[in-house]
Amino acid sequence: MAWFFKTYSEQLFYCALGFVRDKAVAEDLVQEVFVRLWEGREKLKVEGAVGGYLHQSVANACRNYLRDLEVRRAHERRYCEEQAEYEPFDEERLERLR
């Protein structure tokens, strides 16, 4: 597993960075892909190139992250809009909720 990480982690990081535009998030997503790969190694059946599998896994992880982020932001916006009906907008309160 260490060989795969050494060989592919930098490429996968830049792939993730292209999606999420945040270095820390890109690093986390790549690490999560390797952790899932390690945890599921006994059940895993990769047909074809491992690099392609890893790149697709990172791309999917990024898409999921972005989808979840958009859902979270939509809920935050809706919450702010609902609260604005009842009380003045409080930026500090919103930050504490995040």
Could you list some keywords that capture this structure?
98 residues, mainly alpha, 4 helices, 82% helix, 0% strand, elongated
The number of strands is: 0
The class by helix and strand makeup works out as mainly alpha
- How far is it from the N-terminal to the C-terminal residue, by CA? 35 Å
Q: Give a quick account of the main beta sheet: strands, pairing sense, barrel closure.
A: none
Series of H and E elements = HHHH
Strand percentage lies at under 5%
Mean pLDDT, rounded to whole units? 89
Q: Helical element count?
A: 4
Helix content: over 70%
Instruction: Give the low-pLDDT segments.
Output: none
Radius of gyration: 18 Å
> What gross morphology would you assign?
elongated
Report on the architecture of this protein:
This protein is 82% helix and 0% strand. It has 98 residues and is mainly alpha-helical. It has helices at residues 2-20, 23-39, 50-86, 91-97. The longest helix is centred in the last third of the chain and has 37 residues, at 50-86. Helix 1 crosses helix 2 (23-39), helix 1 crosses helix 3 (50-86) and helix 2 crosses helix 3 (50-86).
